[in-house]
Amino acid sequence: MTKATDKPTPLIRTVNDFMLLLKIVMGIVFALYCLSGITLVKPDEVGMILRLGRLVGSNRIDQVHQPGWIWAFPKPIDQVIKMPVKQIREVRISELAAISKEKDLDYRNIDPVSEGYCISADENIFQAKILVKYQITDPVVAVFNFANGFAGIEALIRDLTICELVKVAGRFNIDGILSENKKQLSQQVHEYVQKRLDKIESGLTLLSLEFEEIAPPVFLQRDFEEVNTAYINRRDFINEAQSLREEKIPGASAKASKKISEAESYEQTILAEATAETGKFNELLQAYQENPEEISLNMIYQAHQAIILGTQNMFVFPSEKNSAAAVRLYIGGMKKTESLPTPSVNLYDDEDL
Q1: Could you tell me if 211 and 128 are in contact, meaning their C-beta atoms sit under 8 angstroms apart?
Q2: Among candidates 208, 185, 71, which has minimal Cα distance to 131?
Q3: Omega before 76 cis (within 30°)?
Q4: pLDDT range class, residue 347, cuts 50, 70, 90
């Protein structure tokens, strides 16, 4: 009987090689599984690690990981959540805007079931498209407050914006909403939406809220366009009038100043002449009081002399009763002395009388 050799059979060697290879593969798989927890956080993001559903870290510094490589246990033990805190995200709200209708549909009414609208303070209807820009400022709060991620965030912003716009629109007239108060309306809606977000600790900050489109319903747009055109024309007329006023007032002021200066000069001249005449009159009055008869005769003489020198023609007739006793003097054609020639005297001869 022969003794068995210690040499393994080919089958055993094959099984041993397979087991070694399996161990190597499983080691590599296990190593890859452990390395799968390494995650790259981009520059505009922060990362957070959830371990069995709980946030890892005792404070915000440990809980929030800055951009770079972070390591966590593979799933399902750990889960790495990345939040784009530096990104500016947008939400377009068209629930209050006009919808496109088929040609056979009636544009003269609004279906409140399928088409949104707002009502102004003066009970007019308008429709709007809104663009809201926001940013995540507290990623920890945002992670646990919104189960659906960005879909839940955008749904909250959309609902709050529509709610606040409907309320705030009731404080403005339609003319202001469509023109000069549109910015004020958006600012107030922005402010109230942010207050609501802060109250529920959403971890979100609104950066801007703008109206991409705001207009009356389609069937009223032509009427509102005419009103806006009239408003623009009114504003242009006012601006033109103000420009004309600014152009004319300086010239009118200069003319007024010139007239005032001339009037003041004329006033000084008249006052000087009146003062001189007053002085002469006072001198004459004083002389009259001292010698009234002489002054009276002198004044009568000067009056006669002025009258005679101012005559154009002089006719002397004898008296009807006694030609030697009296004559009558007829004076006609009185004119200014400085413009008259030297007066001539025509006397009748005795033969003509």
Answers
A1: yes
A2: 208
A3: yes
A4: very low
Would you say residue 319 lies in a domain?
yes
Distance (Å, whole) CA 334 – CA 307: 8
What's the whole-number mean pLDDT along residues 167-175? 90
316 touches 347 (CB < 8 A)? yes
Q: Which structure tokens are listed for 127?
A: 């429709």
- 235 and 199 within one domain: no
77 and 181 assigned to the same domain: no
How many other β-carbons are positioned within 10 Å of the β-carbon of residue 132?
Answer: 22
Structure-block tokens of residue 46: 């922060």
Q: Tell me, yes or no, if the pTM score tops 0.85.
A: no
Count Cα neighbours of 220 within 13 Å in the Cβ-side half-sphere.
16
Contacts of 55 (CB under 8 A, 6+ apart): 48, 49, 63, 140, 143, 144
- CA separation (Å) from 192 to 111, 162, 181, 185, 213? 28, 11, 17, 11, 20
Domain count, the chain: 4
Residues 235 and 274 in one domain: yes
DSSP 8-class letter at 133 = E
DSSP-H helix ranges across 174-291 = 174-178, 182-199, 221-290
Do the beta carbons of residue 132 and residue 159 sit within 8 Å? Answer: no
Mean pLDDT of all residues in the chain?
78
Per-residue pLDDT tens digits for 172-182: 988 888 888 88
